[in-house]
Amino acid sequence: MSTKSIMIVGVGGQGTLLSSRIIGNALIKQGYDVKMSEVHGMAQRGGSVVTYVKYGEKVYSPIVEKASADIILAFEELEAARWISYLKEDGILIMNTQKINPMPVIIGAAEYPKNITAKIKETVGRCISLDALSLAKKAGTVKAVNVVLIGVMAKAAGYDKDLWLEALGNTVPARFLEINKKAFELGYEVD
Amino acid sequence: MKKLMLGNDAVARGVYEAGATVVSSYPGTPSTEITESLSKYDEIYSEWAPNEKVALEVAAGASIAGARAFSAMKHVGLNVAADPLFTMSYIGSNGGLVIAVADDPGMHSSQNEQDSRHYAIASKTVMLEPADSQEAKDYTIKAFDISEEFDTPVLVRLSTRISHSQSLVELQERREVELKEYTCNPSKNVMMPAMGRRRHVFVEERILKLKKYAEESGINEIELKDRSIGIISSGIAYQYAKEVFPDASFLKIGMPYPLPDKMILDFAGHVHKLIVIEELDPIIEEHCKALGLKVTGKNKLPLCGEYSADLLGHNLLGTEKGTYSLNEDILPVRPPVMCAGCPHRGFYHAVNRLKLIVTGDIGCYTLGALPPLNALDTCICMGAGFTAAHGFNKARGSEFSKKVIGVMGDSTFTHSGITGLVDIIYNKGISTVVVLDNSITGMTGHQNNPVNGFTIKGEKTKQVDIEKLAYAIGFERVRIVDPFDVDNTVKVLREETKADEPSLIIVQRPCALLKSVKYNGCTAVDQEKCRRCMMCMKIGCPAISDIDGRITIDETICVGCGLCTRVCKFGAMALKEDCKVEY
Question: Between A74 and which of A68, A80, B13, B376 could a Cys-Cys bridge form, CB atoms 3.0 to 4.6 Å apart?
Answer without folding.
Answer: A80
